[in-house]
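Task: sequence in, structure out. Protein: Amidinotransferase.
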Amino acid sequence: MVRPHFFEPNPQTRGDNAFQSTAAIRADTRTALAEDAHAEVSRAADLLEAAGIRVHLFEDSATTTPDSVFPNNWFSTHSGGHLAIFPLFAPNRRPERREDIVAFLKREYRVQEVTDWSGLEHDGLYLEGTGAIVLDHCERVAYAARSQRASEVLLERFCTRFAFEPMMFEATDANGMAIYHTNVMLSIGTRFCVAGLDTLRDARRREELHARLTANGRELIAVSQQQVGEFCGNLIELDGRSGPVIALSSRALRAFDARQVARLERVARLVPLDVPTIEMAGGSVRCMLAGIHLAPRPAS
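Result:
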């Protein structure tokens, strides 16, 4: 996780992120906004650690990276000691990539190889990490909603490199705008998945997605377009000290109905995190967490 000391909805991402607040940020409120974002990340990290999740919390004191709170867009980690670095669409997001975080991961975990695709930004090719890609680690499928932040060419390269099967599809919001990141409408856990199938207007593709997601007996919890807009699709299953944990925002939890909540609680403990300021930027809890799938190095 990255705790920002500067934060605001990014003007360079507003054009294609319908989840982002469009309210103008007044100069006299900028300091308070940054303080609120800082406090929300701090509380979220504390609650996750209390739930038995190991959290590495990094500070970002820069004043030019409004989206640094979303590190899962610029790197991902994979079993076998692999780390991937991704090309980002917005120019002011590219400085989020940090050598000190990569060095920390190499020091604390067994990293055998780093694959860096960031140079493809110069060719206009983007693939924004596990925002653009939602990975099914059990069935080895990489799901991606087509957008300017998810290149089909790079998805193919990613899948070839890390042994996933690509499945790209068209997904739009209620106004017909392309879903900017797949992880706002799809989350995949070990025994469950949450999917905003209504975002797929092609009925045949919708049926194909449903079939793939449930092929191994996984329970599918369908959420509406309205619930997708409340970040119900933007949750993540984590390994807690006493079993699986589902981290999600308080806003998303309120938007689920009682039956959906009961179905989620059957498979994992729910840990709601209150992040209303962060959500102004168009992302929620899943976007704030860059998962680690690396073996730790033995303690010296």
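The CA atoms of residues 235 and 286 lie 5 Å apart.
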